[in-house]
Amino acid sequence: MAAYDVIMIGGGVMACATAYHLLKKDPKIKVAIIEKDPTYTQSSTVLSDGNLRIQFNIKENIQMSQYGLEMLARFADEMAVSDNKPNVDFRQQGNLFLTNDAGVDAAKAGLELQKSLNCQVEWLSPDEVCQRYPFIDPTTIAGGTFGAQDGTMDPQAVLMGYKNKAIALGAEYIVGEVVDVETQAQQITGVRLLDGSKHQCRFAVNSAGAWGQAIARKLRIELPVEPVKRHVFYLETPLNPETTVPLTVFPSGLYIIQESGKHFTCGKSLSIDPIGFDFTFHRHLFVDYLWEELMQYIPACEHLKVIGGWTGLYDVNTFDHNAILGEYPSVKGFMLANGFSGHGFQQCHAVGRYLAELMLGVEPILDLSIFSPERIINNKPVYENPHKIV
Ligand SMILES: Cc1cc2nc3c(=O)[nH]c(=O)nc-3n(C[C@H](O)[C@H](O)[C@H](O)COP(=O)(O)OP(=O)(O)OC[C@H]3O[C@@H](n4cnc5c(N)ncnc54)[C@H](O)[C@@H]3O)c2cc1C
Prior knowledge:
Elements: E1 2-9, H1 13-25, E2 31-35, H2 44-47, E3 51-52, H3 59-78, E4 95-99, H4 104-116, E5 121-124, H5 126-132, E6 143-147, E7 151-152, H6 155-168, E8 172-175, E9 178-184, E10 187-193, E11 198-206, H7 212-217, E12 225-236, E13 247-249, E14 255-260, E15 263-267, H8 284-297, E16 305-317, E17 324-327, E18 334-338, H9 348-360, H10 374-377
Parallel strand pairs: 1-2, 1-11, 2-8, 4-13, 11-18
Antiparallel strand pairs: 3-7, 4-6, 5-6, 9-10, 10-11, 12-15, 12-16, 13-14, 14-15, 17-18
Helix pairs in contact: 1-6, 1-9, 3-9
The chain binds flavin-adenine dinucleotide (FAD).
The site of flavin-adenine dinucleotide has 38 residues, from helix 1, strand 2, helix 2, strand 12 and strand 16.
């Protein structure tokens, strides 16, 4: 039976970033990453839009993104293995959050908080939005916030960067499915895999993404986390913008990301999105639910082609849509990295560092205790701006 200090259950970006930060701080620590699908076909990380934004309304969410920006600036050098430097292709095209009258106060409150933390953000009136992006109908918005530091990157490259570096520093990468989490006297003692093998550990991190609820249930813990299917559509539009278009979120929650020239991805969290592990792509949902809305904001989109798309799972925190981080109070050594909903990818850097600090018993550089599981037990939700996508 192999013995480790820390076992990561699931090998997505949260697991690999945490393993990296553990080994960076303590090169002697024994870490295993256990992943059931090393091709990552269904893992949310590789199916995500890969966006990072500092535009949040909770201070700690902003600070997590600021640390993400710091990490990205040195990512290629810090994650280099021999001569191989990962290229995450970070395109800082900015994010534009457009709002209607109902959302103005929350948007401006967020803007002030972000400015107080030295973020580059500005308010744009409908006319200013229209001057920069003339294809948007200004009568459909009350203004918006633009964050020039925000941007989109290749999430697989970030995952592989952390994974390869963690392995180079000594992490063991085990292909297998965790089917049980074992305890003695309410202390984690190890995990059991589908092939029957057992691995001992002091800490087990629930980094199973949309499968996180299933892992918690092995310990009879109910987490308010559900796998919810999201669609992303790939569009060829008639737009021929002269300037780069930011990731734009319209007041309804519909968003577009310019991939190149006239090609955009587009999506929205819909109330009909099913809970479960179904990945079937339904092209007609764009026509049924999104096209008319898109035309309302961008009339030229009356003519477009749906070239393709994909689906992935949000690990939706149904309690307050924010991360659930830290040790579960009644099981010593059971660490949670769950419930990231639609904004976990960008938080992997700060989450990895924070969980590593907690497990190594050092003072966290960034206090993220606001996201501890105790808030759920004590029924104290922490909410973001309700008018923004989560
Ligand atoms: C369409 C879409 C768009 C998104 N866009 C963004 C965005 O722009 N910005 C952003 O910040 N976030 C975004 N997200 C959210 C983001 O992708 C997730 O929050 C983040 O990737 C979660 O990382 P993870 O490591 O927790 O989960 P995952 O990447 O899903 O990794 C979990 C891993 O655990 C493995 N696993 C599960 N159960 C077991 C088991 N029993 N044994 C072993 N292995 C197991 C799985 O195979 C999986 O690889 C988006 C998500 C989707 C679906």
